[in-house]
Amino acid sequence: MIKILTKYSAFLLVLISIAACSELNENIPPVPDVKTHNSGFADTSSSDFHGKYIMNHNWDMISCQSCHGENYSGGSAPTCLNCHTYAGGPENCTTCHGSSTSGAPPKDINGNTSTSERGVGAHQIHLNGNSDGRAVDCSECHYIPGGVYSVGHVDSDLPAEVLMNNPRANVTTNDDSSQFNYFDIDPNQIRYIPNPVYNSSDLTCSNTYCHGYFKNGNIDNIPVWTEPATSACGSCHGDSSSPLPKISGAGGSHPNSLNCSLCHGGVVDVNLNIINPSKHIDGLLNLAGNDIEF
């Protein structure tokens, strides 16, 4: 009798165990499909390179933090900061575009460095200013995000939005409402109010003060973003045959003299070389050493 009860008790224990395990299994979350990275994950020439993987997954690096740590300094996986040494680690601007000296291309997000590529174009010419004129800040053409995942950054498709809502691109000239209108308003000309437009199809800019939409300027100038070397004096004021702003014979009011330094000596020399780029293409007219609206 005792043996029968013992066998019966053992049978009950098995049934209880099976029931308990069945109930427990129903509440266990699915085990994630954890995989190690492919062998080419650190090889920039590989199709499995992690930069390409992240780009193809909408720049999402949040999942990386589960193993590499919230600030990418390491966790269950090694640190990312041995390679990504700039502030923010992998989330630094230059990880995706730019270089050690600038967050702006080259390189672009596809690794291109030629100005003939739309992602590169005239970025550095604008940002450096060089010998042509005052430097342009990134924020003058783009929205600058506070972080990788800020609204307006990686949450929309390429190409990048070119806003051009900055004051310089929109400088109004021949403006009779200006406080400096005591001698420079030409009543025979319109008030030039720019309407800057970047055409993402043919990569051109139009109707912007920076490229000729001003009084006595070359208002029909439409520069191509990927052809920055074509810029010349006559591109913005004058025409292909003369660097002079429009004279009376061409519907303008500028004096018919090529001695620019006579009036604008603070900006240009007798050989038409720009000697003070910070005073050129800055939204003001430098006349006899004074900066005025025009």
Structural notes for this entry:
By secondary structure, the protein is mainly alpha-helical. It has a domain at 49-91. It is 17% helix and 4% strand. It has helices at residues 2-26, 50-56, 65-68, 123-128, 233-236, 261-264, and strands at residues 197-199, 204-206, 285-287, 290-292. Strands 1-2 form a two-stranded antiparallel ribbon. The chain has a two-stranded antiparallel sheet with strand order 3-4. A hairpin with a 2-residue loop joins strand 3 and strand 4 (290-292). It is elongated, with a radius of gyration of 32 Å. The relative contact order is 0.08. Residues 1-34 have low confidence and may be disordered.
Number of helices: 6
Radius of gyration: 32 Å
Q: State the end-to-end distance.
A: 114 Å
Largest sheet: 2 strands, antiparallel
**Helix share, percent:** 10-25%
What would you call the shape?
A: elongated
Classify the beta-strand content into a percent band: under 5%
Q: Round the mean pLDDT to the nearest integer and report it.
A: 83
| Order of strands, widest sheet | 1-2
Counted beta strands: 4
Q: Low-confidence parts lasting 5 or more residues at pLDDT below 50?
A: 1-34
- Secondary structural class: mainly alpha
What order do the SSEs take from the amino end to the carboxyl end, as H and E? HHHHEEHHEE
